[in-house]
Design a protein that fits this description.
Blueprint: H1 4-9, H2 15-37, E1 46-50, E2 56-58, H3 59-73, E3 78-83, E4 90-91, E5 98-106, E6 117-125, H4 134-137, E7 144-152, E8 156-161, E9 167-172, E10 177-182, E11 193-195, H5 206-217, E12 228-229, H6 235-245, E13 248-251, E14 264-265, H7 266-279, E15 283-285, E16 302-303, E17 305-308, H8 310-318
Parallel strand pairs: 3-5, 11-12, 11-13
Antiparallel strand pairs: 1-2, 3-4, 5-6, 6-7, 7-8, 8-9, 9-10, 13-17, 14-16, 15-17
Helix pairs in contact: 2-3
The protein binds 2,5-anhydro-1,6-di-O-phosphono-D-glucitol and manganese (II) ion (3 copies).
Length: 319
């Protein structure tokens, strides 16, 4: 049973990147301990502010954001951070080698019902020695040097990739360290399950509505196959299920707000999850483009997301 620190130390990753990964994941262990205290610590409920996304912040959105922000800004390797919960990028060290984008707490509607939440992170390397600007972050997900998430479930799990496959770790709560529990994740090409918030069906494009109709039609429909449906309401939980059991996750464009191309955020959600899905053999697209090829135009940009089993993503896009 190898610990994360042993795996990193025996890897060929630069020490600087190892330090960023160690700090990020150690902070997630602290977030995990905080979450475990629940309402006893007075950390549930609303924070009373709205974030730049136009969402009401929960106390834990703010607490987990501040924990990651403080830990990463103190690290000499960090040039700057960007977060779902910060209006602008936050510069750190002008000679720092890495930019980190994160969703400090994914699935915040689950907080108050004691259900699945997570932290999602994405790391880019940055050459030179200049104060960071937002423009530094506007590079495609292809350039991520590492991406991953920590899932705060019945056990706390870390899943990440540095571009050489996907590994899963489980938190040993007694030792406060992540232990490697699956060295390599392979995603099946076909799907039996889909994750899609069906309550939005009437707002989707006709093509997406037709695709969903055919999924639900099951054996008797054109797909001639039964599909099961699951929706965790935390992308981190849905993607984790797909990495464990296969399937497809979709958050499509909808016409509720035609100015938004999707709900999920490219830099904090779509790009890191797309890297994990592709690194395990799956595909990750918007309705038209491979997610990792998108040239971002702003740090808080939203995109439609269709990711998971390669053949099922192709099928969806064929509509
Ligand atoms: P966040 O809590 O970071 O704002 O993200 C919530 C996202 C994502 O995790 C999830 O897949 C989706 O919102 C859930 O949306 P619904 O409200 O449509 O269930
Ligand atoms: Mn949010
Ligand atoms: Mn999120
Ligand atoms: Mn969030």
């Amino acid at each position: 049973m190898q610990s994360l620190s042993n795996v990193l130390a025996s890897s060929s990753l630069p020490t600087s990147l190892q330090n960023v990964l160690t700090t990020t994941t150690q902070t997630c262990i602290d977030i995990s301990s905080t979450l475990k205290k629940g309402s006893l610590a007075g950390i549930l409920g609303m924070a009373g502010n709205e974030n730049v996304q136009g969402e009401e912040q929960k106390k834990l959105d703010v607490i987990s954001n501040d924990m990651l922000k403080d830990a990463l800004l103190a690290l000499p390797e960090v040039r700057a951070i960007a977060s779902e919960e910060e209006d602008d990028i936050v510069p750190a060290h002008t000679d720092g080698e890495y930019l980190i984008a994160f969703d400090p707490l994914d699935g915040s509607s689950n907080i108050d019902i004691n259900s699945m939440v997570g932290t999602i992170f994405s790391i880019y390397s940055k050459k030179g020695d200049k104060p960071a600007t937002e423009a530094d972050f506007l590079i495609s997900g292809n350039q991520q040097v590492a991406a991953g998430y920590v899932l705060y479930g019945p056990s706390t799990m870390l899943v990440f990739s540095t571009g050489n496959g996907v590994a899963m770790y489980t938190l040993d709560v007694d030792k406060s360290e992540f232990i490697l529990t699956q060295a390599s994740v392979t995603l099946a090409k076909e799907a039996q399950e889909f994750a899609l918030n069906m309550s939005n069906q009437r707002f989707w494009s006709d093509n997406m509505q037709n695709y969903a109709r055919d999924l639900i039609a099951g054996k008797e429909g054109p797909r001639q196959k039964n599909f099961n449906m699951r929706w965790v309401a935390a992308m981190v939980g849905d993607v984790h299920r797909i990495l464990c059991r296969g399937g497809i996750f979709i958050y499509p464009w909808d016409k509720k707000d035609p100015t938004k191309p999707g709900k999920l955020r490219l830099m904090y959600e779509a790009n890191p999850m797309a890297m994990l899905i592709e690194q395990s053999g799956g595909k990750a697209y918007t309705h038209t483009h491979r997610i990792l090829d998108i040239q971002p135009t702003g740090i808080h940009q939203r995109v439609a997301v269709i990711l998971g089993a390669a053949n099922e993503v192709d099928k969806c896009l064929s509509y």
